[in-house]
Amino acid sequence: MLLVFGMLWAGVLQAQQTQYMVFDFIKVEKDQLFDYIEFKDLLEKVYRQALNDKQINGWDFWSLQNGADGGDFQYIMVTYYNDPVKMMNGVDEEAMIQYTKIAYPHLSDSQVRELFKQSLAMRELPMRLYMKVLAATEDNFQFKPGVLASFDLMKAVEGMYSDYEKSEIEVFKPIHQSRIEHGLMGHWSFLRAALPQGSEAGSTHLTVNLYKDYMQFFNAQAYEDMNQTAEQRAAVNAGLNSRDQKWIYLATLENVVR
Questions:
Q1: With CB atoms 3.0 to 4.6 Å apart as the test, which of 139, 150, 179, 204 could cross-link to 209 if both were Cys?
Q2: Structural domain boundaries, residue 78
Q3: In which domain of life is the source organism classified (predicted)?
């Protein structure tokens, strides 16, 4: 009986610890970039209120260094949740307005609403991804402005979905864990699309690779594990062949709420 209870409790804990993330890829017209930069600082304070209200688990604002096309997006906003329902509901506009009033008590209701109306007109959201974290390294990486991320969009090869996930978790995760222990990166996580997708989906998975700075990033790119066995190399190649790396987005963290 105790064993059964222990297994059930472990399952509950695991479910509670599952993390969900929403990635908003943001495009802002060049003549409005300065105004939007000011607005993102307001967003940080607003999302901190949402964190205090336990609506989210965290929030990041990243500035893109490269991507599919320099004109497609300039920023990536990442919001963290511990519940898929909260993820899908998000933080609605009315709640954002109420949080803004708390963060900026000197602003009137009409001023806050006009501020949001203007900010929404500044930006476009060409792409939004709802993701579930499947695996992550053990580390104590500190999120702070200036850290670097590589967001790698992947698409599992048709018929090899399970093989690909197994490779990321059993082959690539230990490799990244070793790199962290050797000071070559800060964190790695593997995510799957949280919503059902058809065969025409642009991507099915995402890996997040975090580095404390460009020096660590370039050292990681140059590193080659000379101790890797032939069997390990074969496993790596099999994993690479089970997915298509669609895009790599390199970004710098500008604002963070934890």
A1: 150
A2: 20-128
A3: Bacteria
